[in-house]
Amino acid sequence: MDGFLLSILQQSFIFSIMVMGVYITYKILNFPDLSADGSFTLGASVSAALIIKGVNPYISLVIAMLAGGVAGAITGFLNVKLKIKDILSGILVMVGLYSINLRIMGVSNVSLFNYETIFSNGNIMIINLIILILSAVLFTLFFKTKLGYVMKGTGDNENMIISLGLDTGKIKILALSISNGMIALSGGILAQYQGFSDINMGTGTVVMGLASIVLAYSIFRNIHFLNASVLCIIGTFLYRTSIALSLKLGFNPSDLKLISAIIVVIALTFGNESISLKKSFKLKRGLQGIFQSKIS
Amino acid sequence: MNMLQLENISKTFNKGSINENKVFDNFNINIDNGDFVCVVGSNGAGKSTFLNIVSGKVPVDTGRITLDKLDITREKEFERCKKISRIFQDPSLGTIPSMTIYENMSIAKNKGNSFGLSFLKEKKKEKYFKELLEVFDLGLEDKLHNPVSQLSGGQRQSLALLIAVLGNPELLLLDEHTAALDPKTSEIVMDITDKIVKEKNLTTLMITHNIDHAIKYGNRIVMFHRGEILIDLSGEEKERLTKEKLLSLFKDMNDRNFFS
Q1: Residue B168: per-residue pLDDT
Q2: Nearest Cα residue in chain B from A159
């Protein structure tokens, strides 16, 4: 395997965990959670700050995950208890986390090159793969449990879950917490993988997550046996590949955010069944019209 | 024996504003255990607010609500839902569309128990669910693993009914639950409703605009008018009530409305 594909694969493995986190809020809970941008960096900065303090890199990841969970719970609290609109709750937490992340790291960029990370011993690929498989299995198993089903139900038909006598507010907070925990874990792993944590590394996390999800869904929508975590992983790989290819084509790294945004727009437009059907309908009719007018 | 009791209920919407709307002023009603009550009345009479007050969706200004001797006035909607099940007019509200019939029933069956980290699906329940569905004769038992979103409105509403009573509620609220269905399906769903209510001896409140249904089903009929009970007939009196009589009562009420 050449270096190009290898690095895409490794990045996909790391980002897939984040994408699963975004999947929980975007697809399952139907909650546009923008705090992800903040909690990704939070995971990176917590992990980096702890490693520098001499904490075991694996334990630093666990703590990073918990920190992300707290951030997600705060987003949920703002929305559920204080009745702030979902999108604004996420933005508020994201903005607040920027300052907190700077506090945690002390500076805007922390280097880990001289410290021991989870990748210091052993094969990077295998370590990444083990963490990913573990996350994906837990993710899949969780959504087969009663709690998991109730979480899906809350996003799909909240009334029904209320009618079961359950507090959907608590379920939302828990879902946001799990989601942001996964996103922070992914951020922590990425910081250790690339050897530094940067205050801006989380910018665009939500868009990246959405892009991966909608890419996978617009292509594999009709394949039912693929479960959500597999779709997340495939989507991440597709997204990472398209980003890497656009870099190879000569785009600047600074263009990447725009490219991701465009990917999301395209995938959403064509992934949306009703729109794409209508469009192809109109297109067909339009073409028929042209041909007929030429014939007649 | 009293199952549900509403005492001195007052409710005003948009209090103090120009749109102030006093729906109930010292409203009282008692529902006996096992009653199947048809609630009729023109639009704006307070029928839906009545159901919303019972279910906890709308908090009351003053008054007391008692369900099975327990004061539930301060309980939130989700807390009351442990004892009260409700079916809405919109068939999509009573089920989770992205999940299969089997998953929907499994969730509903678990009502009242904890929703923890144990697995939801149990193979042994499949046969039991199929048996429950066969009673309807809608062919649902063969679609156990199809998502509910693929079902028709009537099938969904029947399933919603079955799901609502799976958790053995003390009170069943039906909010015009056949209004969105075509006449034939509406009859089928009403038959199923009657069957379930009788079989489980459920205390039921049903809002309906269908006069035939109001006459045919239930052992008690209550007509609302501007937040008050205009007519309350039960037992033999209800049986003697004819469609013509009920329609003329409606007309009287509307005339009174017109002149007041």
Answers
A1: 84
A2: B93
B208-245 per-residue burial string, b: 16 or more CB within 10 A, e: under 16: bebeebbbebbbbbbbbbbbebbbebbeeebeebeeee
Fold of A3-295: ABC transporter involved in vitamin B12 uptake, BtuC (1.10.3470)
Q: What are the structure tokens assigned to B115, written together? A: 């929703």
Which range marks the domain in which residue B134 is found? 2-259
CA atoms within 13 A on the CB side of A260: 23
C-alpha separations of B227 from B22, B31, B42 in Å: 8, 17, 11
> Who contacts B24 (Cβ-Cβ below 8 Å, separation ≥6)?
B9, B10, B11, B46, B49, B50, B53, B60, B227
- Asked whether the predicted pLDDT for residue B246 surpasses 90, the reply is no
Strand order in the sheet with B21-32: B21-32, B2-13, B62-67, B70-71
* Contact status of A273 with chain B (Cβ, < 8 Å): no
CA distances from A147 to A15, A136, B96, B127, B172 (A): 25, 17, 15, 23, 25
Question: Count of domains in chain B?
Answer: 1
Pairing outcome for strands A196-198 and A109-111: antiparallel
Determine whether the interchain pair B97/A167 forms a contact, defined as Cβ–Cβ distance below 8 Å: no
Is the four-CA dihedral A52, A57, A61, A66 of positive or negative sign? negative
CATH of the domain at B222: 3.40.50.300
Residue B94 near chain A (CB below 8 Å): yes
Is B81's Cβ below 8 Å from some Cβ in A?
yes
Does the pLDDT at position A76 exceed 60? yes
Q: What is the pLDDT of residue A275?
A: 45
Please give the Cα distance from B69 to B184 (Å, whole number): 39
Residue B132: is it exposed, middle or buried by C-beta count within 10 angstroms (0-12/13-18/19+)?
middle
Looking at chain A, how many residues does it have?
Answer: 296
Q: What is the pLDDT of residue A182?
A: 97
> What letters, b where the CB count within 10 A reaches 16 and e where it falls short, cover A202-241?
bbbbbbbbbbbbbbbbbbeeeeeeeebbbbbbbbbbbbbb
pLDDT digits (tens, 9 = 90+) for B129-174: 888 888 777 888 888 888 898 888 888 888 988 888 888 888 999 9
Select the residue from B75, B79, B80, B96 to test the A interface by mutation, using most A Cβ atoms within 10 A.
B96
- For residue B148, the 8-state DSSP code is G
pLDDT digits (tens, 9 = 90+) for A29-55: 999 999 999 999 999 999 999 999 999
